Amino acid sequence: MNSRGDADFTHSGVDHILHPTTSIVDIQKTGPRIVAQGNGVYVEDQHGNKQIDAIAGLWCVNVGYGRKELADVMASASEKLSYYHTFGSTSNIPQIALAEKLISITPKSLTKVFYGCSGSDANDTLVKIAWQYHQLRGKPNKVKIIAREQAYHGTSISAASLTGLPSFHRGFGLPLERILRVSCPHYWRFGKTDESEAEYCDRLIQEVADLIEKEGADNIAAFIAEPIMAAGGVIPPPKDYFSKLHPLLKQHDILLIADEVVCGYGRLGVQFGSELLGIEPDMMASAKGLTSGYFPLSAAFISENVWEVMTEGSRQYGSFAHGYTYSGHPVGCAVALANLDLIEKEKLVENANTTGEYLHQQLQQRFAHHPHVGEIRGHGLLAGIQLVEDKASKRLFDVPKKIPAQITKACMNAGIIVRPLPTIGTIALSPPLTFTKEHVDLVIDVIEQGLDQVLA
Ligand SMILES: Cc1ncc(COP(=O)(O)O)c(C=O)c1O
Q1: Are 257 and 285 in contact (CB under 8 A)?
Q2: How far is CA 304 from the centre of its chain?
Q3: What's the CA gap between 113 and 121, in Å, rounded?
Q4: 51 C-alpha to center of ligand 1: Å?
Q5: Nearest to 430 by CA among 271, 267, 279, 302
Q6: Among 41, 207, 280, 408, which lies 20 to 30 A Cα-Cα from 22?
């Protein structure tokens, strides 16, 4: 900062900062893109280049940038109670009010909430609760967690292990031994020739049944799934996947954890992806859209049944020995509450539905016949454009060619931020829920130009 309090960009920080999911070698050559401000659906870098952020930061800025309503709430909550912990039977007004609100909007099966700071820690918390739940019920061997190829659940030690993308395991000796893996539920890519979507779905469910048989239900605690996979390629499951999966899990006393870190709080045109896909999860992780990224806050939910067992646990163990310094942070909870109010007042869930429908219509209309677009996926304001080298054989571009990154770079230069998902050759869109049809039109024009530029 200089003496006027303005940012000084002479120094780029590359000598001091270890950036997340960034090549140290690359950033030392290119320097970082320094984002200076954000307003509505726009962000602006330090050189004054303005872009529409059609991925909402990291799929999280649901109400858009620079909302004064949230800044004001943050300031007043901070003045009133800047921090106090929630350990040892301590509470605060914002976390109580937020809990009431959350339990009124989350799937009916969920009745209690635990607060943390990130999507990774929400998943981590739920895994620990699943372990304790089974332990308390006299089933201490039920510790393995089933997760899916290509899933993204975060990067803490357990969340990275649950994540099914090898780049998050390499060099760390992960995943942990307790993780079991099943197929990514992507019909377009993994369905066999002449196999219907229903047959493919049955094959996936059979795979889970076979795994349970092989490992023994007595050794398996939970199954974790994003309703629609986000970072793994924006992949909705085949129809009936969850309605067939959940009874199988129940039959074997295996808990279903819905990871709603991206899908939650309106992204799919409904409050939660579970609602869209008819899932009544035993546990649910959420973060991101909970505060629209204005404050690091996560909410992990459990069912009444799990709660009752844990209550018994308190009789045995004393306190629930888990928690973070910032669990139930009064400022974060106040911001979350104000953010959920904005989502409600501005009917942003409804907008995600209607503008989302328009987005998908336009994507289909403009790109379904493109020779290098294999599939358009997603729901509401979450979309993936699958790139292919050869449309007929569905052959993907070789990853080292970095085609998605080249296209997203062209889009960025033209003022639109979309995200490359390199391993599956997809371009992802997940804009603020305030997006309009005009924004959609702009974004689609620019993506078309990007495709033409890179793939001509
Ligand atoms: C589905 C899902 N779960 C968990 C996470 C991890 O969240 P965080 O980065 O806040 O730890 C992410 C992050 O993108 C996510 O997409």
Answers
A1: yes
A2: 25
A3: 13
A4: 24
A5: 267
A6: 41
* Any atom of ligand 1 within 6 Å of the Cβ of 124: no
Nearest atom (ligand 1) to Cα of 226: 1
Is residue 388 within 8 A of residue 424, CB to CB? The reply is no
Domain boundaries, the chain: 33-63+347-455, 70-345
User: Is 118 near ligand 1, meaning CB less than 6 Å away?
Assistant: yes
Task: Say what the pLDDT of residue 205 is.
Answer: 98
Atom of ligand 1 nearest to the CA of 229: 1
Cβ of 287 below 6 Å from ligand 1: yes
Cβ atoms < 10 Å from Cβ of 161: 23
Kindly report the CATH number that applies to the domain delimited by 70-345: 3.40.640.10
Q: Give every residue of the chain whose pLDDT is below 50, as ranges.
A: 1-9
Considering the domain 33-63+347-455, what is its CATH architecture? Answer: Alpha-Beta Complex (3.90)
- CA angle 333/37/261 to nearest 5° reads 40
DSSP string, 347-368: THHHHHHHHHHHHHHHHHHHHT
Query: What's residue 10's pLDDT?
Result: 54
Which residue's entry shows tokens 């690091």? 296
Residue 118 CA, closest ligand 1 atom number: 10
Does the beta carbon of 226 sit less than 6 angstroms from any atom of ligand 1? yes
pLDDT at residue 11, rounded to an integer:
74
Ligand 1 closest atom vs CA 231: 16
**What spacing in Å lies between the alpha carbon of 160 and ligand 1's midpoint?**
10
- Tell me how far the alpha carbon of residue 392 lies from the centroid of ligand 1, in angstroms: 34
- pLDDT by residue (tens digit) across 204-258? 999 999 999 999 999 999 999 999 999 999 999 999 999 999 999 999 999 999 9
Does ligand 1 lie within 6 Å of residue 342's CB atom?
no
- Ligand 1 centre to CA of 128 (Å) is 17
